[in-house]
Design goal:
Blueprint (H helix, E strand, L loop, with lengths): L1 H15 L3 E6 L4 E8 L12 E9 L13 E11 L5 E14 L2 E5 L2 E8 L8 E10 L4 E3 L1 E16 L2 E14 L3 E15 L1
Antiparallel strand pairs: 1-2, 1-12, 2-3, 3-4, 4-5, 5-6, 5-7, 6-9, 7-8, 8-10, 10-11, 11-12
């Protein structure tokens, strides 16, 4: 009897844990993100609570203060959890951001907050709204940098199981001692896949 109960519980736990791959574009910018759910590898961690992530963002000069943009890359760590049955999930994280601007290197270790809320609307598919904010003061900004500020807000529609359409706005500021530079500020749309 115990074996019969354990197998469905184990399967349900595995189904709740997802890695995510996301691709966001507009007519000029390209962004891809991969989040690895550590709960799928370590059974002492709750599924959908601990993530390692990697991101590549190639912003365009059209959405930047720069005349020539290089790619921004980051590696991240995120902890999150739902707040009861409210539909709200909160997270906190840290990431290492690196990019090269002309002959200068920019790197930072910003701290961040994530919010995601499942809207109680009956439209046939789950609908979420969310926001992220990361900030690195001067003490956590290296090389020639003064600080780093990034925020985004998004709408997420799960149109098929594990398949999402995402749209939103992002702003990434890489501020230096001599000049404040907006690396990217733009609207975006894309897909997110859970696997």
């Amino acid at each position: 009897m115990l074996k019969r109960m354990a197998l469905p519980l184990l399967a349900a736990t595995t189904l709740m844990a997802f890695h995510t791959a996301e691709l966001n574009i507009n007519d000029k910018d390209f962004e891809t993100t991969l989040l690895i759910d550590m709960g799928q590898f370590n059974h002492t961690l709750m599924p959908d609570s601990t993530f390692f992530g990697f991101r590549y963002l190639k912003g365009s000069e059209d959405h930047s203060d720069l005349h020539k943009t290089e790619a921004l890359v980051d590696a991240s760590f995120l902890l999150q959890r739902p707040l009861g049955n409210s539909g709200l999930t909160m997270g906190m994280g840290v990431k290492y951001v690196y990019m090269q601007i002309s002959d200068d290197e920019f790197s930072a270790l910003p701290l961040g907050l994530h919010l995601r809320y499942a809207l109680p609307v009956g439209v046939g598919v789950p609908v979420y709204v969310g926001a992220q904010f990361y900030y690195s003061p001067e003490v956590l900004t290296f090389n020639e940098g003064k600080n780093f500020i990034e925020y985004r807000a998004f709408l997420d529609l799960e149109i098929i199981e594990r398949g999402h359409i995402i749209g939103g706005y992002r702003s990434v500021e890489t501020n230096f001692d001599v000049d404040d530079i907006t690396y990217n500020h733009s609207w975006f749309a894309g897909f997110r896949f859970d696997f």
